[in-house]
Amino acid sequence: MRKSFAATITALAAVLTLSACSTAFADKSAPESQENKAAPAAANAPAAAEKQEEPKVLKVSRVPGLTPILTSATGRTVYRFDNDSANPSKSTCFDACAKQWEPVLAGSGVEIQGGGVDERLLSTIARPEGKQVTLKGWPLYYFKDDLRLGELAGQGRGGVWFAVNPQGGKAKSTTQTEPAAPVQKDVQTLTVNVVDGFMPFVTNQAGRTIYRFDNDSANPSRTTCFGECTKKWEPVLAGKNGVKILSSKINHASVGTIDRPEGKQVTLNGWPLYYFHKDKKLGQTAGYGVGNVWFAIAPNGKKAPRCP
């Protein structure tokens, strides 16, 4: 009996041993056994059906940097998609798109918490998952990376996804539209960090995500981001005293600079480096995948992938 109990404990310990990426995000990447794959769906089917019958509760919320937006009752940002149609009301987001952009489903109806929305503008359209809520004809969605109030990782994504305002339009920015020119620090710092859902990528010492641009060139090292582009994508400039490498994962020999109007732009394995104007602190990766050409950069200069 003791041997059997000890063997069980050992087996459980082995199951709980995960990779570095999986440890942080076990709910996203932990493998399922063949035995367990079908069971949860069957076990949860009644609960899912019951949830579908509940009305969808939405409300008007205020978040920094935007005019009022529509959110879920818990504050999750609601978006609209320019590739959809409002008249007639039609969604074009299915399959792979719907894995990133979750349709807002009505359940047994739609309720507005606290007012602020003309309920005559609300309706639904049919789709495979159920009845999708629409506002002034626009189908509504959540972005998979937004979970709490204030998270806006989907805002402006690909130039076609926008937080929706209470009238069904696009929420507008309340911040300065033309940021100040990049500040040249005494020393520019490069290090490596890991945040939720990503393999390690390069940041500055404060944890601000650093990106590379597919339209640039690494050999020869050349930037194509000027003018309007730099209002959103700030070149990472070498400091007056150069660049300081704070991680052993970055090869010092792979770091260089190129000349541009603002100063000397830092490069990694030939790729010019940038900050995204909406990222300010560790964990913010709003620029990742924008236009399918902007990506966080890995310590070796390649695109930092998402965790499997």
Write a brief caption for the model.
The chain has 308 residues and is α+β, with helices and mostly antiparallel strands. 17% of the residues lie in helices and 28% in strands.
Protein architecture, described:
The chain is α+β, with helices and mostly antiparallel strands and 308 residues long. 17% of the residues lie in helices and 28% in strands. The longest helix has 19 residues, at 34-52.
Draw up the topology in text:
Elements lengths: L1 H14 L4 H5 L1 H4 L4 H19 L3 E6 L7 E4 L6 E3 L3 E2 L2 E2 L5 H5 E3 L6 E4 L8 E6 L2 E6 L2 E2 L1 E3 L17 E3 L24 E6 L7 E3 L7 E3 L3 E2 L2 E2 L6 H4 E3 L7 E3 L9 E6 L2 E6 L2 E2 L1 E3 L17 E3 L12
Parallel strand pairs: 1-7, 13-19
Antiparallel strand pairs: 1-2, 3-12, 4-5, 6-11, 8-9, 9-10, 13-14, 15-24, 16-17, 18-23, 20-21, 21-22
Provide keyphrases for this structure:
alpha+beta; 24 strands; elongated; three-stranded antiparallel sheet
Based on CA atoms alone, the radius of gyration comes out at: 23 Å
Please identify the structural class as seen in this structure: alpha+beta
What oligomeric assembly is this protein in? single chain
Helix-residue proportion: 10-25%
Cα end-to-end separation: 39 Å
Low-confidence stretches: 1-20, 22-52, 177-181
Shape: elongated
Q: What is the succession of H and E elements? A: HHHHEEEEEHEEEEEEEEEEEEHEEEEEEE
Tally of helical segments: 6
Number of strands: 24
Q: Please state how the strands of the largest beta sheet are arranged side by side.
A: 2-1-7
The biggest sheet, with number of strands, parallel, antiparallel or mixed sense and barrel status, is:
3 strands, mixed
Mean pLDDT: 82
Percent of residues in beta strands:
25-35%
